[in-house]
Amino acid sequence: MTATVAEPSPPAPPPTSPPGGTPSAWIRARAKTAAGPGLGAAPAAPPAITADGTYAARLAQRGGCWFPERWTLDSAEPYAVPLPAHQPEEPGTRVLPMADGRVLVHRRAAGRHLFSLLYPTGPGTGEVQLGGVEFEEGAGAELTLLPPAPRGAYAYALAAGARSTAVWLVAGGSFGPEHLAEIPGRCTGGVWLDRANRILALDRALDGRTKTVAVDLERGGEVTPLLQITAESDDRLLLADADSGLVLVRSDAPGETRVGWGVLGSSRPVRFPECLRLPGRAVTPFAIQPGQALLPESCAVALRVDDGSGTCAPWLYGWRPTERRLQQLRAPKGWFAGSGRCTPAGVLELPYVTGSVPCGMARVEVPAPGRGADPVGAERDTPDAGGAPEASSEVTAAASAARVRRPVPLQQAPLGGRGTAG
Fold first, then answer.
1. Is the entire prediction scored with pTM above 0.90?
2. pLDDT digits (tens, 9 = 90+) for 251-287
């Protein structure tokens, strides 16, 4: 893939935030004949939320037309601002919120990935074109936006080819998209391991196995092994918290694919709690409580649980590594299942849309240990589970920047015998 050189992006006017905004003419016209709740229609994807929780963005639909929509979340009540461009978007268009209130839009057209920044301006929508990245049709190359970066003035994308994967800076550069790194192997995922947009964890498929590696974007994409549980296992990183070093992984090292947890920089191995093993159900962590620098085992973790039938709405659960059970939580009606963030106080912020609420953010507390009472899996305590792990020098080291810059691989998991809690 090659980048098309673009002119430096002109400074955009400060984003305005009129509650509700004013849709363009084509949205108004289509809305007159649209049936149903309008903005409450099913979106192409759940909202993406900035790392600081200030904004969110999604592709919304009204009257059969798709358009980007920005949510402002740092006001007394969240509100949505539609950002229609000069024509409706394709259903496959992807959007990402930026820390300044603009919305990055990723479109595909004529053999190119095109990027723009949209922002509300009076009754219309302003657009700053950032340039594009070329790709060969039918070559199997894919380009996807990475999750919102900790430093929200920048946005990144992952371009996976047949033999290598490129990391691109698509917003925040001086001259359009910038190629940052080329990594051997096909990479997916994308988890930020620090707060400086420097260390990115990717799941790399190479030589028939999938392992997670850490990529240093300030060293030209230097690759460091991060998650290698066994030589024969497929190991993927699901979530990571930069404050505590807590990570959630998915691996088949225990003999079946299961969810486990560990601590970056710790000499202690990955653990696979029995309470996270729910036969016939898919367990997906989607948020970790931040701000717990010395207490990774006490961080609240939010989980989405599906029964695989497609007929039941996903369940919402809370869990902490110190606990040996899950706690069922009440998800709001219209929740974008698996979407949300956790505050330092352990409160989940869950985006939802209903026919009467076009932009909602529910707040659900994850009960502290010993409180809350819909335990799940209490009978599945592991035979080797003792009390809560003691604070250790490795846990203390989890807060150090040096540890984040040079992650220590999470090594072989305890697959038998007695061990630590979890």
1. no
2. 999 999 999 999 998 888 899 999 999 999 999 999 9
pLDDT(341) > 90:
yes
Other Cβ atoms closer than 10 A to 19: 12
322: buried, middle or exposed (CB in 10 Å: 19+, 13-18, 0-12)? middle
Does residue 391 surpass a pLDDT of 70?
no
Sign of CA pseudo-dihedral 410, 411, 413, 419: negative
pLDDT of residue 8: 37
User: Which pLDDT value is given to residue 408?
Assistant: 54
Residue with tokens 């590594």, as numbered in its chain: 321
